[in-house]
Specification:
two-stranded antiparallel sheet; single chain; 3 helices; mainly alpha
């Protein structure tokens, strides 16, 4: 690092970039939100067209649109869901990912135990906080 680059300058530059990114992100989210609302209104019009005409798909000169049923599932009672999954031996009902915080805690509390197939990647990261 050159002598003219001080930690103060690095943090100041980092904060300026962070502020500009936040400004751009907020502007994007606002403009994108307006477009998403407009797009949702058009989608609703397409659903209504299908309903009114008893259609599942419509081919136009501009392209094709079709409707499908999207179903989502979730639980408001994780204890009961966990019990259900164990009782019915259906672990495939859960998504395959590891809870990062719980795994870290488990490994810290059990340093001699490591699940087979566990991959670990560690890297240095920098956290910058604004001066108050």
């Amino acid at each position: 690092m050159a002598n003219s680059i001080t930690p103060d300058k690095l943090v100041a530059t980092y904060n300026k970039i962070k502020a500009k990114r936040a400004e751009l992100s907020a502007k994007f989210k606002e403009e994108d939100g307006v477009l998403k609302e407009q797009q949702d209104m058009v989608k609703q019009g397409m659903i209504e067209f299908c309903d009114e005409h008893g259609l599942e798909s419509v081919r136009t000169n501009e392209g094709l649109f079709y409707r499908t049923v999207k179903t989502r599932y979730w639980t408001s009672d994780w204890s009961s869901m966990h019990e259900f999954i164990l009782e019915n031996e259906v672990p495939e009902l859960l998504e395959k990912r590891v809870n990062q915080t719980n795994m870290k805690q488990f490994l810290e509390e059990n340093p001699d135990v490591c699940p087979k197939g566990l991959n670990v990647d560690s890297e240095y990261v920098i956290t910058v906080r604004k001066k108050k």
